[in-house]
Fold each of these.
Amino acid sequence: MEMLQMLQDAGRGLFGPAWLTVWTLVKIMAIVLPVMGAVAYLTLAERKVIGYMQIRIGPNRVGYFGLLQPIADAVKLLFKEIIVPTGSSKFLFVLAPIMALAPALAAWAVIPFSNGVMLTDINAGLLYLLAMTSLGVYGIIIAGWASNSKYAFLGAVRSAAQIVSYEIAMGFALVCVLMASQSMNLGDIVRGQHGSFGMLNWYAFPLFPMFLVYLISGVAETNRAPFDMAEGESEIVAGFHVEYSGMAFALFFLAEYANMILISFLTSIMFLGGWLSPVPFLPDSFIWLLGKVSFILLLFLWFRATFPRYRYDQLMRLGWKVFIPLTIIWVVVVAVWMQTPFWLW
Amino acid sequence: MVLLFSLLPYPLSEILKGLLMINFETILFYVFAALTVFAALRVITARNPVHAVLFLVLAFISSSGIWILLEAEFLAISLVLVYVGAVMVLFLFVVMMLDINMVRLREGLMRWLPFGAVLAGLMAFEMAWVLSSSRTFAGKAAIKHGANYSNTKELGRLIYTDYVFPFEIAAVILLVAMVAAIALTSRRRKDAKSQAIDEQISVKKADRVRLVKMPPEIHARVNADRTAEVAR
C-alpha cells in the first residue's frame, strides 16, 4: 500500500493532471495482460484435462509437461496468412473478430478482485456487465454474414437465436441476486454475502436454482460444448469462423476463452462469495476467488468432455420452456421470501 | 504531459491545457454527437440494409455515450442492453435472412420524397418547439450530482412510487401487444409435423434397446470361408 502511494505521488509529479489517464492505463494493463495469460494457459489446461479424462496424455512435446504449447500455438497463428474470401464484405470481415474480443475485455472493468480492488467502482456494475456480455454476439453475427459462406451464415444465425434466448434467463437469475443483495454494485454484492457462517452466507444457497441456471446459461452464452451449435463441426464445419485463419481466428478463440473466464468470475462473485473465505476462521483473500474461478473453469472443461452436443430444438426448449419460467417463478419466490423472517441472508 | 506543454509558446499551451482539463466533457459530447449524426445519416444512405442496421447500432451506442455524460447511466446502459443487445440482434437476424432486391428498393424515391420531407420538417419543428419553449429546458443547465448519486436508484424510486400506474399500464399494453402478435401469427398447419418432446425425454433404455444373446460368430465365419473355398 505504501509503495502504491509512493508510486502515485511520483506519477503525479511527473505527469501532472494527465496522471489519472496514465494510472488508469496502467491498471487496465494490469488486468488485461493476466487475462490474456490465463486464456493462453486455459487452452493448455483444456487439452490436458480432456486428455486425462479420455485416458490420453495431451500435449507434452513443447517444453516440460507441454508448458510452452500455448506460446508455440500463438506464434504459429501469428505467422499464418489471413485469407479474406472473395465476395465478402472486407471491412466487416476484419471488424468481426475485434467486435467479439472488445466486449469480452471491456466487461473486466467492473470485476472486483478483492475488497476495493477493481478498475472502476460503479453503482450500475451489474447492468454494465449485462450490457457488455450482450454485445459479444455481434462479433459472431458479423463474422457469419461478412464471410459470404453458407456454413458461416448458418452458424451466425444459430448463435444469435441461442444467445438472445439464454440472455433472458441469465438476466432474471441476476435479478434474483440483486434483489438478495439490494445493490447493483458488484463489490456490495460480495460484501452482502459476508457473514459469520462462512460459505452458508453465500447466495448460492437461497438462490440455488438460479445458480444452476446461471452456470448453464453461461455455458450457452459462451457457445461452449454441449451448446456449441454456432460451431457444430459435425454439422456446419466450423460455423461462424469457418472462413477465418491466422490471427483473425485467434481473436475469436481469445474472445471465447476470455468470456469463459469472465463467466467463471461472475458466477463466483454473484453466487459463491467472491473473495470471501468459505470458513469463518480463515482470512478473506484473492486466492479464494482464484480457487472458485478455477473450479468453475474445470466444470466448463468437464462438461465438454462429458456431454454430447444438444440438438437445436432441445436447446431452445431448455432455454424458453424450462429456464425462463423457472427464473420468473424464483424471482417471485425470493420477493415473497425476503418479506418473511425466514430470509437469513 | 505538463513538461510537453511548457515547451509550447504561452497562449498555445494555455489553450491546450484548457481543452484538456476544463472542457473534456464538452469534447466528448461533440465527439459522440457528431458520431450519432454521422451514423444516423448513414442508416438512411447506406446501400446495403445490413450495413444500415449496423450503423443504427453505432447510433445507439454513441447516443448512450451522450446519456452517460448527462449522468443518466441507467438509461444509457439499458439502451445498450435492450436495443443493441437484443432488439437490434433480432433486426439483424431478420434483415440478413431477407432476400432484398436492391433495384426495387431504390425505385419510387421521387414519389415518396415530398411526403418524407413534410414528415421530417414536421418532426424537426416539433423538436425545436419543445426544446426552445421556456417551460422545458431553455436556460436550464443540467444539474450535476455527486459521486454518491445513483441514477438507477432514483429512477426506480420514481417509477415505483409516483409513476407506478403509468408504468404498470405500459407493461400491460406491451403484454397485450405481445399476446396479440403471437395469436395473429402463430397459425398451426394441419399437416405440420412436430416432435413430442416429453415422450422423447421420458424414454427408457428398455424401450429402445434390446440386447440379444447369441453365440460368437467365429465358427460360422470359418465354415463359410471353407465352403467358399471348396466351391472355387
Note: Chain B has a mean pLDDT of 79.
Amino acid sequence: MIVLTPLKKFQFPIHAECINPDVFQGKSVEEIASLQVWEGNRQKKLGDIFKIEATTHETPNITINGDVSEVRRIGQGMKNGEIVINGDAGMHTGEKMAGGKITINGNAGGWTGSSMKKGLIEIHGNASDYLASPYRGSTEGMRGGKIVVDGNVGSDSGSHLRGGLIKIKGSAGPFLGFHMSDGTIHVEKNAASRLGANMTGGKIVVSGSVDELMPTFTIDSIKPKVKIDDTETAQGPFYVFLGDLAEKGNGKLFISKANNAQLGPIYEKYL
Amino acid sequence: MSVINAVTCPICGCLCDDIEVTVVNNEVVKVKNGCAVCEAKYMGYKSEHRIRQPLVRKEGKLVPVSMDEAIHKAAEILANANYPVLYGWSSTNCEAQRVGVELAEEVGGVLDNTAVVCHGPSLMGTQEVGIPTSTLGQIRHRADLIIYWGCDPWSAHPRHLERYTTFTEGRFEDSEWKSYINKVKAVAGKKKLLSAQRVEPHKKPHETVAESLIFNKPPETLQKEGRKLIVVDVRKSMTAEMADYFIQVQPGKDYELMQAIRALIKDEELDVEQVAGVPVDYLREVVDALISCKFGVIFFGMGLTQSAGKFRNIEVAISLIRDLNSRTKFLIMPMRGHFNVSGANIVSAWQTGYAFGVDFSLGYPRYNPGETTSMDVLLRGESDATLVIAADPGATFPKKAIQHMVKHPLIVIDPHLNATAMLGDVVIPSAFVGIEVSGTAYRMDNVPLPLKKVVEPPEGILTDEEILKKILEEVRIIKSKRDEKTEAP
Amino acid sequence: MTEILIKNGFVFDPLNKINGEKMDIAIKNGKIVESVNEQKAKKIDAAGLTVMPGGVDIHTHIAGGEVNTGRMIRPEDHVKDVVSKTSITRSGTGYSIPSTFVTGYRYAKMGYTTVMNPSMAPLGAKHTHEELNDIPLLDKATFPLLGDWWFVLEHLQRGDLEGCARHVAWMLETTKGYAIKIVNPGGLESWGFGRNVHSIDDTVPNFDITPRDIMCGLAKVNKMLNLPHSIHLHTNNLGIPGNYVTTLETMKALENVPTDGRPTCHITHLQFSSFAGDNWGNMKSAAEEISKYINNHNHITFDMGQIVFTDTTTMTADGPFEFTLYQLSGHKWVNTDVETETSGGIIPMHYKRTSAVNALQWSIGLELALLVEDPWKVFMTTDHPNAGPFFAYPKIMAWLISKKARMATLAKCHKKAQKRSLLPSVKRELSLYELAIVTRAGQAKALGLKNKGHLGVGADADIAIYDINPEKIDVAKKYKTARKAFGNAAYTIKDGKIVVKDGEVVQHTDGKTMWLDVKTAEQLKVDEEMKLKFKKYWTVEYENYPVYDHYVKVPEIISVKASV
C-alpha cells in the first residue's frame, strides 16, 4: 500500500489523475514520487506536494491522509484496486471509473463519479453538485456501478443516469436524476425541487419528503414497497408517479406517502 | 464641427448602429436617434471619474507612475502568478479580446468574461440542447408572436421593440406601433385615475386571488392576425403594460411553467390545476396561440438566467422551442446586456473552443463552469492574482469573492476609477471603446458591427488593445529571463 | 528571403504533366523559380521522398458564425482532443470543430496550404474574416451565400440578369468573397417560415421563382462576371433518400447555361446528393447513375463529402435539412436564419460502421470518386466537419489508392451496406499522380487559382513533401505506410518558408486571404434608393455592412474583368 500525505494546505488546484492504482501498480516509491502533476500553472512531481510512503499492507492500494479537496481527478478512469481518502476529496474523483473502489472519509467535490461505468464509490460525508453526472454538453451519464453517500448531495446529481445505483442517506438538491433514462436513485431523506425533471426512464425513490413535484408527472398508483437493488427493498407506502410528460417519459418516482401528506388532496382523486 | 452618422452605440446588446453624433472641438455636442441611455453616455462620459494617469499602490496608497512602470508591474504580477484570473472583457472591442486570450494563455490563467454573471447559463443551456435562433432582422420581417420572458426591454434595451420586433415594419409583418401607443395611453390614464382615487398609498385594496385570475385570462387578441406581444415576468414591467397578454409567473417557477407548456404542446394531460400561479386552462389557450402563430420568438433575460434553475431554465426554454418547431416556426434569443459580451464569447470560442470560463493553467484550454469560472475560483480562494478589464466586479461580485481578490495583487484596466479600480494595486487608464476607440463588437444575435472613434482620447491614454499588447510583451521578457536563470546552473 | 532547393524528390505535378520524375524544385522569394544559387540556397534532400504541390481544399467549414456556434455548443467534443501551447504554436482544442490555430496547424501537418471556406452569410462576413486571420499557415478564401439573397431572387424574378450580376459583383467585393455559393436554392427563403422546396421546379413562397431559375440564373451571372470558379452548389433535397433524381435534374438544367469550355457548376459534397430508394430502410447508392451522367458531360465538377466513421458535427446553411436531422436524431440542434440572405443549422452526428445508412453513405462517396473516370472532375473532401473532420484525409487517401484498404473497412461495416455497396466490384486504385489531382491540382484548376496546385515556375512556393518512395513501396499494398506519411508531412513549405518538418509545426506564418475585385462596366450605383432598400431589408446601416480593408490581415486581391 502507498500512503500519501499532503505536505501543505493547497491553495491552487492540483491535477493529479496519476493517483490511480492502475498507474501505481508495479512502481517503486521513487517512481511514484516522480509522476507528473500540476499545481496551478506549474508542473510538479507528486513527491513535491505529497509525502509518499509504502507499507506492507495489500489493501487498500492507496491511502491518502489529509485534506485533498483541491486535488482533482483522483482515481480517474481507474479499473482496479482501492483508494481510501481520509479527508475531503476534490472534484472529478473517480470520474469515468471502470472498476475498483474509492472510499472518501470526508466530503466529495463536484463531478465525483462523473460518467462512471463500474465499481463502487463510498462517500461518508456530503457530496457536492453533479455527483455521477456527465461533463458539460454530454449526455453520457453513469452507466453502472454504485455510489453510496452518507450525507447530502448537491444539485444536478445523477443527471443523464443510464444505469447503476446512487444511494443517498441524507437529502438531495434540485434536479436530482435530471434526464435519466435508466438506473436507480434512492434518497432516504428529502429531495428538493425539479426532482426527476426530463426523466425518460429508471426510478427515483424518496423516502422522506419532496419540496414540490414537477407538474409534468402523473400519478399512477400507490405501492407498499419498492426494490432498490438485489439486497435492499425500501418500505412505503409510496405514491408512484410517471413522467416526465414533457419528454413523453416513462420514468418512475416513488414518493413516500407518509412524509408527503400534501400530495394526497391533489393526486389521490385520480386513483 | 463634424457630423458622424451610422455610429454604433457602445452600451447594450442591441448595438444600434444608426446613431448620429455631432462633434465640435473633440467634444460630442449632439446625439441623434439614440435612446436616453445612449445619449447620456455620449454626452456624459467625460464627466465620469476619469483616470488620467497610471497608478500603482505604494504603502497602501494609489500614486501616479509612468506608463512603463505600471506595465512592468502588471506584467510582473501576472508572470509570477501560479493561478491568475483575467476577468471582464465585455465592454471592450474584439481586437482587445484577442490579445486577452493570448495573454491568458501566456500566463496560464483563467480567462473569464462577464457572461459568467449574466448569460453564461444561456451558453450552458445551449450546450445541452442547441439553440434555434436567427438574426434580429428575420424577426422584424416575419415574427407575428413575440414573447419577452424575464426581461424588460422597455427599460434595459430601450430600442429593441422599435428596431427589431413589435414596432418595426417588416416585409411580411407590419408594425403594431399605433395600437400599442393607444394602449400605453390608456394604461397611463388608468394609473392617473387610480392615484387620484387613492386616499393613502398603503390603503390601496389588494387584488384577491380570484380577481387576479380574471385579469390574467388570455384575451381573444392572442388569436388575431398580425403581431402579438406576450410578456412573462414576476412583476408587471413597462413592457408588460403594453403586452397583449401578461403572464405573472411566481418567482422562481419559470422552469415548472415552461415544462408544463411543453407537456401541453405534446397533448399530455396534467394532474394539477395550476402551474406557477397560472391556471392550466389559461395555459392551454396560450399553447393554442403558440402553435397557431406563423413565426414566434422568445426573448429572455436575466429573469430567467439568474433565477432558481439558471442554465436549466434556458435549457427548458430552448427545449420548448424545439418542441414548437414540430408545429410552427419558433425561435429564441438571449437579451445580451453589455454591448460586446457576445464578442467576448465569440473571440474566446474561435481561439479556444470555449466561450467563457477558460482555464489555461495546464497549457491548453479547459472549461467547466463551476470549476474554471472566475467567480467560483475566487469563492474557493484559489487564485493568487487578478486582472480586471472592461468590467466592474467590485460592484457586482459577492463580498467573499472580492475579499479574496483583494488579498492578492489586483490589476485594473478601465477608463474610470470604478469600484474595482479603487481596490487595485495597478490601475491603468484606457480609452473609451466605441467613443475614443474603433473596433468590432457583436450584437446580441452575433452580427458583427464596426465601432467608431468619434473623438480623440485624452493625451497619453492608450487603448485596451495597446495596453494588453505591452503587458504581453513585458510578460514574455520577464519569463524568458526567468527561464535563462533556471537553465543557467 | 531565403532560397530553397528541393533536391532529387519524386515530383508529382499533374498540371505540368510531371508524373513522379526525379527532379529539383527551386524556390526564391516565396515563388517557384527556374533555378537558385546552389551554394547559397538551403537544400532539402528529398531523395526517396514524394514531392507534390501544397494540398488545396475546395470545401471546408473552418471559420465564421456557423462554425463558431458549433464550437460553442460542443465542449464535450473539445475536451477529448486538447492541444498545448508550445514556444511556436498557440494552444487550442480539436476534434470535429478545431479552434482556429489548431485548424491551421493540422492542415499544414498534412501538407495542405490552401483552403476554401465555402459558406458565409454576407451579414456575418466580418466575423468570417476575423477568424480567417487567426488561421495560420494557410491561404484562404471564402464564398458568400447568395442563392436565397432577396436581391438575387428579385432580379432573377424580373429576368434582370445584368442587374443581378452587378449586385453579385458588389456583394463579392463587399464581403471580400471568392465565389458564388448556392445552398438548397429557394429552400432557405422558404425555411424563413418553416417550409422547404422539394423539387427544382417548386415555387418559392412569396417570390415567384423556382430553384431552377436561381441556379441557372446565377450560373449565367457567374459566366457574365468571368469569375475564376463556377457556381458552387449544394443541391436541393440534400441528404434525403431518392434525391439523386433531383441531382440529375439539376445537372441537366445546367446543361443549358452557355459555357466557355470550363465547368458551369461545382456540386459540393455529392455523396449527400446521391441516394436512391425512397426511405431510410431501402436507401441505395445512386453512384452508378450519377457517375454515368458526369462521365458523359463536361460541365460538372464535384467534391466527395466522404463519410468517416467518427463523432463529428454537421453544419450547413441548409436550415431545413438540419431540422430534418434534428427530427431524426433528437440531438442538440442549432438553427441560425439570417435576415434577407440565408439560413443555417448544426447537429452533432456520430457516423457508425454499424449503421446501414452511414456505412452506405461511406461507400457512396468512394464509389463516386472511383466510378467517375476523369480525376479532374473529382475532389477529395469530407465537407469538413459534416462528413468527418478534415484531419481524416489520410484515411480517405488510403481508401482511394488501395482496394485493400477499402475492403478492410467494408468488412467491418453493417451487413446490409456490404451487400448494397458497389465497392467490391470496383478495381480502380488511384495512382499518386491521380491522387495529386484530386487533392490539389484539380481543385486549384476548378477554383481558377493560377498560382496554386502546381510547381511550375511562377507558382506560389506551397509544397508538400511526403516520406513515400514510389520506387520502393507499392502504396496500394502498403496503404498504412502511405496513410501515416500523408498525415505527417516530412516538409510543408508555405510561401517559401518551411512551416512543418517531420509532422511538426516549426514556424509561424499568417497566410493570405484571397478575394475578388470584380470590375463591371457599369458599377453598382449605391444611391439613396439603394440605401433606403438597405434600411428596409437589413437591421444594420449601409455604412456598417461592408468588410472594410482592415478586416483582412494579409489580403490578396484578385481582379476580374466582367463582360457586363
Note: Residues 174 and 193 of chain A are 5 Å apart (CA to CA).
Amino acid sequence: MIRRPISLRLRLVLMLLGIAAVLAIVLYFTVRTVADQAAEATQDGVLGAATLAIAESLQGGDEGVSVDLPYEAFSILGSISADRVFYRIDAGQETLTGYADLPPPPEAGAAVTPVFYTSAYRDTEVRIAAVARMVLVARKPVPVLVMVAQTRQGQEAIAQRVAQRAAVVGLGSFALAAALSLLTAGGVIRPINRLADAVGRRGPQDLRAVDHPTPVELKPLITALNGFIARLRGAISRTETFIAEAAHHIRTPLATVRARAEIAMRQSKSEEMRETLRAVIRAVEESSRSAGQLLDHATVVARSDRLADEPVDLSKLVIAQAEAFCPTADLKDLTIAVETEPVTVQGDRALIEAALRNLIDNAIKYSPPDSTVELTLVNGASARIEVADRGRGLSGQEQTRLTKRFARGENAGDVIGSGLGLTIVAEVAAAHGGRFELTEREGGGTCARLYLPSA
Amino acid sequence: MRAALLALGLILGLTRVAVGFTVEEEVTFPATGAEARELTILSTTDTAVMRPLIEAFQSRNPDVTIHYTVANSQEVFAAINDEGAKFDLVISSAMDLQMKLANDGFASAWRSGPTAALPDWARWQDRLFAFAQENVVLITSRRGLEGLSLPQTRRDLIEMLRDHPEMFEGRIGTYDPELSGAGYLFATQDARQSDSFWRLAEVMGGLAPRLYTSSNEMITDLKQGRLVLAYNVLGSYAGPRLAGDADATVIELEDHTLTLLRTGLVPENAGNPLLGGAFLDFLLGSEGRGLLRDKAGLPPIDEAALASGPHLRPMRLDPGLLVFLDAIKRRGFLEEWSSALNRD
C-alpha cells in the first residue's frame, strides 16, 4: 500500500482544527461545570437560609418543642424559580411536623450550619438542607433536626440555558480558530512556496548556488541543493575540459601527418606516389574536419545549457572568419564578398563562431569554382547573418531533414562531409533563442540565414 | 326534556359517587352530539356559575359528556390527596390547598398557548393555573350604619367599631377560619399583610361576631338586615348579588385588599388529561374569559386591572402558601385567633 503524501498545508490545517476542536470541547465543559456549580451554590444558599430561618423559630418549653414556620422562608424558595418544596422537623425520634417520609441526612450529625445532600423523593429528585439544633424541653436538651427540600427544575432550566450558550461559545471559538488556522497554515507554508517559485523560475543554464532567504528549518534542504548544484557544475566543467583535451589530442597529430605527407609529396618523383600521398592528405583533411565538427557539436551541446552571456561584436566576427577562410577560397578561385554593419548581440562567442565557421565551410565546399560566396550581416529586429552561394542548391529537400545529425543531402555524395555542420548551426540558433533558415536561391545556389536576437 | 335529562344526570351522578368525600352536588351534562369522550371535573365553584362555560365548551366539543362534581375546598383536597379520586380537572378557590396538591406531585404538567400567555403570578410551574381573580371585600348596609361615613381602611373600621359598639353588637359577620378553608386562607393572608388584622379581630371579638362558612350566607344575612357589615366576603359573589341593592355597599379597603386566584390543575392520575387541559385552555382563552366575566360573574385574569388598583394584593402562588397548612402553624394561628376573639 502506497500512502499518498498529504499536502503540508492540509496537514497543518487538520492538526490545528483538531486542536481547536479539543479546546472548544474543553471550553464547553468548563463553562457548563462552572455555571452548574454557581447555580447550585446560589440555590443551596437560599435553601440553607430558609432552613436556618426555620431552625431559629424553634422554641422549647415545658410542653415540648414548638415551631413557628416563617412564611418568608418558604416564599423566598419560590423566588428564584417555581420549584416544589418539602420540609420535615424531627424532635428527638419523632417527626414534629412536615413530610415524615423526607429522607434524613445520609450521615448523622447534621451541624449548626446546613448540610446539603441530594436524594430521591416521591416522583422526583430533591436537594435537601438539614440543620440540627438542641432545644430545652422541661430543662432537658432535645435534638431537633430541620430539613428543607427543594426540587431543582429551575436549576436544570438554568443549566440547559447555560449549556446552550456554552455550545454557542464553543462553536464560535472553533469557527474562529478554524479561520485563524487557515491563515496560520498559509503563513507557515509561504516561505516554502516562495523558495519553490524562486528555484523554479531559474533558467536552464542557471547553476548559481541558491541564496534565497529561507527559514532555519529549510536550511538543510538548501545546503543539500547547493551541494548538488556544485557537483553538477563540476561535472559539466569536466566534460568541457575533456572535449578540449580530445580536440587537442586528435587535431595535433592529424596536422603533423598532413604536414609530413605534403613534404613527402613535394619530394616524391613518382607520379604514383604523389597520387597516393594526395589521397592520404584528402583523407586526413576529411578526418580533421570531421573531428572539428564533432567537437564543435559536442561543445554546442555542452555549452547550450549554460551559455556565456557576453556582448559579441558580430561584424568583427564575420570579417575575421571571412579572412580565415580566404586561403581555402583561393584554392578554388572563389571570392568571398563581405557586407556588414555594426551589430552586437548578447551570446556565446565560441558557439556563434562555430556556427559561422560551419556555414562558410559549407558554402565554400559546395560552390563551383570562380563563383562568389556572399557574406552579409544585417541589423534589424534581430541580427541576421546571411551566407549565400551558387552551389547545387537543396534540390527540394526538407531543411528539417538536412539539419538532423549526420544527415547529408542526397546530391552531396561526392563532397567530403560528416553531416554535422547544419545541425551545429541550428543548435546554436536555438540555444540563443534565434532561428536558422535554409532557402533555395534565385538563379541557383543556397542561402543560409542565421537570426540572433539583438542585444 | 332538558330538565329531565338533567334530573337523570343528577340521579346517575349521585349513584356514581361511592367515594369517601362529601359531595355537595353532581351534575352530568350529556354530550350534545354522539358521545365519545367523558370529562370529569371536581370543583368548589357552584354548578350555576360554571354552567355557561360548560355549555359553551360542549357546543365546541359536542362529543364530550361532562360530569361536574361540586364539593367544598377541604373535600376537594381530600378527594385528590387522600382518596386518589380520578378527575380530569380540579378547580378550587382554595389556593393554598391547590398549591399543596401541585407541590406534592398530584398535578401533571400542562403546556399550551393559553397557559404560556398567563402572567407569572397567575401560574405555578406548568401545573397550577389561575383563571379568575376575585377581590376579598367588606360589605356594609347603609341602613345599619345609620349615616356613619363608610370606612375606607381597616383603621377607619376599627375606630368605627370602637366608637359605636351598640350598633354592631351581634351584627358583624366574618368567616370562621376553623371551619372554612377560604376563611382560614383570608385570615392568614390578612395577618401577613398587616398587624391591623389582629387589632380588628380583637375589636370584633368584643362585639359577638357571627361566624360563617360561606360568603353567600353572609350576603343573604346582610340583605335581610341581620348584619350591618361582613368582613372578608368574596367580591365575585357580593358584586352580582348586591348590584341592584341600594342599601348595600361593596368596599375594597384601601390599606390592602386581598385578591384570590381561582385555580385549576390537571391531576396526575387523570383518566383523560388532554380533555382536562382542553377545558382549562378554554377557561383561559378569549371566549372563556368573556363568558367568565359576563355570564359567570368571575373576573378573568387581567394584569391591567391589578395595575390600576394599587391597593390590590394578589395572593402569591408560591410555597409560602404551604406554611399555614402546617399542622403546628395552623394550631398556633387558630389559638391566637380564638384568644383575640375572646372565645375561650
Note: The mean pLDDT of chain A is 85.
Amino acid sequence: MSDSHLRHYWTAFRTIVTKEVLRFARIWVQTVLPPVITTALYFIIFGGLIGERIGEMEGYRYMDFIVPGLIMLAVITNSYSNVVSSFFGSKFQRHIEELLVSPIPNSVIILGFIFGGVARGLSVGVAVLLVSLFFSPLSIHNPLVMLVIVLMTSILFAMAGLINGVFARTFDDIAIVPTFILTPLTYLGGVFYSISLLPEFWQGVSMLNPILYMVDAFRYGSLGHSDFPIAMSFAIIAGFIAVLYGIALVLLNRGVGIRS
Amino acid sequence: MTPALEIRGLKKTYKNGFEALKGIDLEVAPGSFFALLGPNGAGKSTTIGIITSLINKTAGTVKVFGHDLDTDLQAVKRSIGLVPQEFNFNNFEPIGEIVVNQAGYYGIPRREAWERCEHYLNELGLWEKRKDMARTLSGGMKRRLMIARALVHEPRLLILDEPTAGVDIELRRSMWDFLTRINTDGRSIILTTHYLEEAETLCRNIAIIDDGGIVENTTMKQLLAKLETETMVLDLSEPPPGIPQDAPIVLRQIDDLTLEADIRSGQHLNDLFRVLDQAGIRVQSMRNKSNRLEELFIRMTRPGQSPSHLTPGASGTTEQPENQA
C-alpha cells in the first residue's frame, strides 16, 4: 500500500471519527448526561443506602467494590448504543451512501465507527468516574490494566453495536439486543457482586458470560482484586474482538443491509 | 479516446426475480452532457446504482474512464460524483460539515476541504448558510447542497439523478447555467430527468431506457430529426380572414385567435410564413404545441400512446410501425 493511500485512509478515518464525536457531542444531553445521572443514582441507592447494610464485599467497602463495575457498565452500554444508533441512523437517512460511494475500504469504515463509539464510551466512563469521586476515593491498582481493559471492552461492544446496526431494519431492532441481551448480561456480569457468592452451578453459568471477565479485570486494575487470571480476561476479550471484526468486515464486504 | 463510461451486457436481477436490467450496452464520450431518460421503473436508477457501487450487478462490465468496476473499484469511485434522486445527507449536520466530511472520505485534508467547500457553496449560493443545519434548508437548497457535495472531490464524471425535481423554474435555470459551465470546463455529466425540456436544452447525447433495455442511444439532433411532424401553435392578433384549404402546410383553427400548423419533415418555417402571408393572417406569437423530445419519448416508451406524426426510428427496438400504433 502506497504512502498516498495510507494518508488518504488516515484522513478518511479521522473524518469519520470526528463526525461521530461531533454527533454525540452535539446531543450530549441525550448521550452523555443520562448515563451519568443513572450511575449517580446507582451510587446513591446501591452504594450508599443499601451498601451500608451489605457491609463489605471481598474485603472492600461495597461502594468501592461496585465503582469499577458501574464504570464498565456505562462504557459498555454507551460504546454499543453510539455505534448501533449512528450506523442505523445513517442507513435510515441514507447518508451511509456518502461512505459507500467514496473510495474508503470497509475496514476503515468499521474502524471509524468503532472509534467513534470508543470515544463516547470513554467520555461517559470518565464522567462516571468523576461522579464516583463524590462517593468513593479514587483507587488505582494497575493503571495500564485499567486503561487497556476499558479500551478493549469499548472496542468490543462498539463492534457488536455495528453488527447490530448492519442487521437492524427498524428502530425496534436497535433496542432489542441492548434490552434483552446486553443489560441482563451486564447486570449478571459481577457489577454488583462477586461470583464467589453464587452457588457452584450459577458460578459455572456466570463463567459463560464474557462481561464477567471484563468487569473482573477492570476491578483488578482498580482494586487489585480479581476472580480470574487477568491474562485469561485479556485473551477472551481479544478473541471476541477478532471474531466480531471478522464478522463485521464480511457483512460490509457483502453489502448486507446496505447494498441491493 | 477512453470513454467516460462504458457499459457492456449489464444485467441486474433482484432476489425476488425482477429483472431490472436485461443486458444493456452504453457508452458516454468524455466531456459529454448525456441524458439517460426513461419512465419510472425503467432501470435508470438501477444503472446509476451499479455504476456508483450502491447496487451489486448480476452480470456485465462497467468501466469509468477505463477503470473496471470489478478490478479497480477505488479508481472508479474517485472518478464519480453522485447527486442522487433522494436527499441522502444527515439532516442534523451543518451543511458546511456535510461537504467537508465528504471531501475527507476522499482523502482531502480538512483545510483544503474547507477551501473547496467555500468555492462550491459560493458557486451554488449556499456559503452564507454553511453553519445551518441541513434540515432547515428549502428543497432547492438541499438539491444544490447535494451538487456541492458531489463536486467537492472534483470528479471527472458527474451523475445527476433528477437534480431539479421540485425546484422552481428560476432556480432550475440557474442550475442549468451552472451545470453547463462545469460541463464546458471539461467535466462529463450524465443526467436523468423527467423534465424533457431540461434534457433537450442541456444534453448533446441521449439514451432512452425502458423495461431494462436501451431503446435509443444517439445524439439529441439525430433523435429529434425523427419527428415527422411538428405542431406549432399560432396566437393571432386578429381573427383570420379565412383558412387556406389547399396550402402545403395544414392549418387548423382552434378559436378566433388561435391556429395550429403541422410542419412536416422537410418543410421549413419559411413555408409556413409564406402561407400565412398569402392568406393575410397576422401572427402575434408562435410556439411548439408540445416538447419535441417529449413526443419522441412517449412514442418510444409507450408505443400504444404514440401520436400519429412520428416516424418509426431506425435504431429503436421497441418502436412499432405507424399502422400498429
Note: The first strand of chain A starts at residue 56 and ends at 57.
